[in-house]
Amino acid sequence: MESIQFIHTADLHLGSPFIGMKGLRKEHWKKLKDSTLDAFDRLIQYALDNKPDFVLVVGDIYDGEDRSIRAQARFQRGMQQLAEQKIPVIVSYGNHDHLSGNWTRFELPKNVHAFDDSVSQFRLETAGGPVVFTGFSYGKRHISESVVERYPVAQDTEAYHIGMLHGSLEGDSTHAVYAPFKKEQLLNKQYDYWALGHIHKRQELHREPSIVYPGNIQGRYRKESGTKGFHSVTLSKTDTSLEFIPTSVVQFDQVTISIRGMLHMNELIDACRKELSLLGEAVGSAIVDVMFTELDRESFQLLAEIPESELLETLRESMDALDQFIWIQGIQFQQADNEAEISTLGITLVQTIVGWNTEEWKSILKDLYRHPKSSRFLEPLEDQSVAELQLAAAQKIRRSMQAGE
Ligand SMILES: [Mn+2]
Questions:
Q1: Rounded Cα–Cα distance for residues 202 and 303 (Å)
Q2: Same domain as 125, residue 50
Q3: 59 C-alpha to center of ligand 1: Å?
Q4: Residue 186 C-alpha to ligand 1 middle, in angstroms?
Q5: Which of 151, 298, 304, 387 gives a 20 to 30 Å CA spacing to 174?
Q6: Which CATH number covers residue 99?
Q7: Same-domain pairing of 97 and 154
């Protein structure tokens, strides 16, 4: 038996609304708004150019249960293009595009096999040999029970066995836990490859056999940073090779810039512009958080009288002169190690904020989260974002309450 070649993608989140990003310039906003759809087109173009044996899409094709028709039309068109080249597609739907959602339906072409809501198998003959896929689609939004036990152990050793599973590793609480599994449970099935979805960060949980999250194809906010894409996989009975193919149209990222000893604003602006245009050359369009580090006495004096919002707007305007889409989303400051003293009131404030636990943050923010209009737009308040909030608040206080200023 030779080898098979296929595309493994997941979490396309077509039609993501990019809530909270509306300060962007008009043309940049359009590019960001269409970025999930355009990243998907890059994937389709790669498939048309490279003609894999098949394409796997492991859940969350759409961002919302309502599946915008624009996103569906784009997906439909991509599937049609693959159909014309006789490239099969195997789809399982995830928590974001489960089968009970309320949406206008499109009929997908015959090259697409979509799993229904019970675990089942689908067999495909390819030039490299027969392949048996096992998977299921989410029938509803939340599947908190383990589903993997319903996957049969591989029997036919002549065929390649591929498991498709949209879910999370048991004990991984960084994302909502869906269809939890243990690595050993997957390995016990004797499959040749596990194509996972749900976690948006690209990672390989195991090799021989490979258990893989390809991550999403386009970042949606600052936490989904770095280049995003899918995997092109070559699988034989003895070997697996993964090639990462980038697709992201706009990259979320963080840049650190030292401002030690800076006395003049033009130095700071120049340093910022230089770093960001380098990033732009490397990755194309980007939305960045800038962390100014090594804030010392000189640079502190430079910044002391300037409201942060004005500094941010000035930096954004200075980036407009560049012929690139680089949007500064936010700025932060980190002090030099020999941190200047802050006033006693400042210390008390910082200690109070740092002392709040997640429950206290939730109680402080409860009115906002319970508000019928605002709550729809808020991400759940997780421990990690609480830590980020605490850090940002403490930095702001430190910066504006230094002793003797
Ligand atoms: Mn997802």
A1: 38
A2: yes
A3: 7
A4: 20
A5: 151
A6: 3.60.21.10
A7: yes
d(CA 158, ligand 1 centre) in Å: 33
Q: How far away, in angstroms, is 168 Cα from ligand 1 center?
A: 11
| Segment 46-96, tens digit of pLDDT | 999 999 999 999 999 999 877 788 999 999 999 999 999 999 999 999 988
Q: Taking all residues of the chain, what is their mean pLDDT, rounded to a whole number?
A: 89
How close is the Cα of 96 to the center of ligand 1, in Å? 7
Report pLDDT for 404: 43
Residue 190 has pLDDT above 90, yes or no: yes
Alpha helices in 304-343 (DSSP H): 308-320
Q: Please give the residue range of the domain that contains residue 307.
A: 250-340
Question: What are the pLDDT digits (tens) for 4-51?
Answer: 999 999 999 999 999 877 788 889 999 999 999 999 999 999 999 999
Residue 230 Cα to ligand 1 midpoint, Å, equals 14
**77 and 226 together in one domain:** yes
Q: How many whole angstroms from 200 Cα to the centroid of ligand 1?
A: 6
Q: How many helices (H) and strands (E) in the chain?
A: 11, 15
Q: Residues 208, 200: contact at Cβ < 8 Å?
A: no
